[in-house]
Sequence to fold (174 residues):
Amino acid sequence: MQKGFTIFESIIYVVITSVVVLSLVSISWTFINNHTKEKIVMEVNNNASFTLDKINYYTNRATALDNSTVYDTNPGTLVINFPTDPQVTINTYTKEVTFGDQAVNITKLQLTQSGSSYDLTSDFVTVDNFVVTDLSGSLDTTVQIELTLSYPITSTRTYEYEKSFTTSTTINKK
Fold:
């Protein structure tokens, strides 16, 4: 009676073990990639949601749009007037950020009020398009905002994502 494995049995066991390990690694890699893509999509969508909510918040409380609002160009500028509060300006600016060891210029959206500026978008997305369109009629002041955000690709980022958002809001004249 022989004890141990024959060389043929050993090869079979090594092949089976290799297939199982490779399958597990492949499945794990797929989950990691899908999770990364999901985080990128969420980052873009959350930035857009926050930005458009802020624009709606301020325009719903405004009495008028200022004449210095820049329409129908990219990048646009939205200048909102209030009866008692200072004016609010929403526009873009360029900022250099570092991903890994690579410096990248991104375009950010900012809100300026009373001389203080606040970023509306994070350092992980760039504003590719910000257009303000005047849809006003004789009775109301309405603007359409077109916003395109993307997650830029770099040497350390292998997945790019871009999405466009459009909203309209009417100024409630008080």
Q: What stands out?
A: The two ends are 99 Å apart (CA to CA). Residues 89 and 139 are 24 Å apart (CA to CA).
